[in-house]
Here is the input.
Amino acid sequence: MEKKSIIYDLRKKKGLSQEALAEKVFVTRQAVSRWETGETVPNTETLKLLSKELDVSINTLLGSRRELICQCCGMPLEDSNTSRETDGFFNEEYCKWCYADGEYTLDIWKRYAEIGGKEKLEEFKNQLIHEFNTLLNIEGLPKVENLNVLPGEFINMEYTLPNGEKVKFLDDKQAYLGSQLESEFGGRCFGIAANMDFLLVCTYEENGENPELVIYKKR
Ligand SMILES: [Zn+2]
Here is the structure.
């Protein structure tokens, strides 16, 4: 029984003929045909081009052979959250929140990559935990034990000011160190987030509803 290759499926999905795809990645139509029947496999350079044209990672093109994780934050990588270079090629080392447009997005990593890497990041994380636990004195906020890397777009809540104005404090494209904690008094949840520049604490109901800002403190 003939099993059509993933390249065949992706090409069809893009609505490309074998000729059209061949032209885009600088090979002959016959070469495309041979990949699709499994007779041959594209070389490394061509895989790169195919990955860009067909909008999937090289890992996916090769049948998802490896479990990829982001080298910054450890998040499992899928095509939808894998970072890209400015020229549109996938960068299969990092998630799109840690790395975008050719550089590290998170200040923490950008700066710590320069001066010492992962160990320094752990140190910084512990420093932030210490600050959350000693500087803020917020009633009901339990002791912070750990912080995770959180994409801005997941935690960028909109707060309503007393004058009715709505504000956001985070950047959807950045990543932050943060966590969710249950209030010692029950009821609302605490959300905490930080980076090199600030500490933020908010509370919200289940599923992040009715968020209220508790404190936004510059570091
Ligand atoms: Zn990441």
Q: What stands out?
A: The chain has two domains: 3-103, 116-218. The pocket of zinc ion is lined by residues 70, 72-73, 75, 94-95, 97-98 (CB under 6 Å). The first strand starts at residue 82 and ends at 84.
